[in-house]
Amino acid sequence: MAFSVPVFELKQVSQQFGQFSALRNISLQIYPGERVALVGSSGAGKSTLLRLLNGSVRSTRGEVWAMGRNLSQLNSKRLRQIQQQIGTIYQQLNLVDNLRVIHNVNAGHLGRWSFFKALASLMVPLEVETAVKALSQVGIAEKLYERTDRLSGGQQQRVAIARVLVQNPLVILADEPIASLDPELSREIMDLLQNLAEQADRTLVVSLHDVDFARSHCDRMIGLRQGQILFDAAPHQVSPDLIADLYRLESH
């Protein structure tokens, strides 16, 4: 590997939620510019792993490092500084439906804006050109002042991506970004994420149920089964039998 310093590193990480063991003894490194797909059944630990990477959950055991820093040792201010470099596209999108698109896109600034600037922007939108540029990159610039709840599911997904672009992070994490989309829209969104990562040499970590998209749009696949890593390999090294094992064993 050409890169000496990983953007993320997990060292023997386990995550418990009450009696439920979401992740067990996970160790991995993710390097700058990689496009990594997390694959596995629902409940395998994909979403939990993403939440550990963005610092929204702290590990029960082990160490989670991001940008060369041990997240468990950072105070709130330092943690927020790291999190500003990590853009997350959530499965539920976390958009405010009754707001106009520009306000949801501008939420990408909230890590940098003061409370009063954010409040003022709800009345008179700020940094409109930045929002237009981000929406142009995702192909819906004309929706700038549309109410978000009037958009299609695919358009709302693009708003969520534009919000991350405004944040301008080093890393994009995407939790099942195509779970509710039809195959054609799914390909468009995956193409978009791949291109946005490649253009700015961003790291992309995306959880997917669709193994075909993981193969076609990522250069590394991590298979999670019952909170453990079953495989971590380049797509061409992941055989159909290994995928069958991943999902068959997960069901037990």
UniProtKB/TrEMBL annotation:
Source organism per UniProt: Phormidesmis priestleyi ULC007
Protein name: Phosphonate ABC transporter ATP-binding protein
Pfam families associated with the record: ABC_tran (PF00005)
GO molecular function: ABC-type phosphonate transporter activity; ATP binding; ATP hydrolysis activity
Gene: phnC
Key word Cell membrane present: yes
GO cellular component: membrane
InterPro entries for this protein: AAA+_ATPase, ABC_transporter-like_ATP-bd, ABC_transporter-like_CS, ABC_transpr_PhnC, MetN_ABC_transporter-like, P-loop_NTPase
Source species, domain of life: Bacteria
CDD domains referenced in this protein's UniProt entry, alphabetically: ABC_PhnC_transporter (cd03256)
PANTHER family the record matches: AMINO ACID IMPORT ATP-BINDING PROTEIN, PHOSPHONATES IMPORT ATP-BINDING PROTEIN PHNC
Keyword line: ATP-binding, Cell membrane, Membrane, Nucleotide-binding, Phosphonate transport, Translocase, Transport
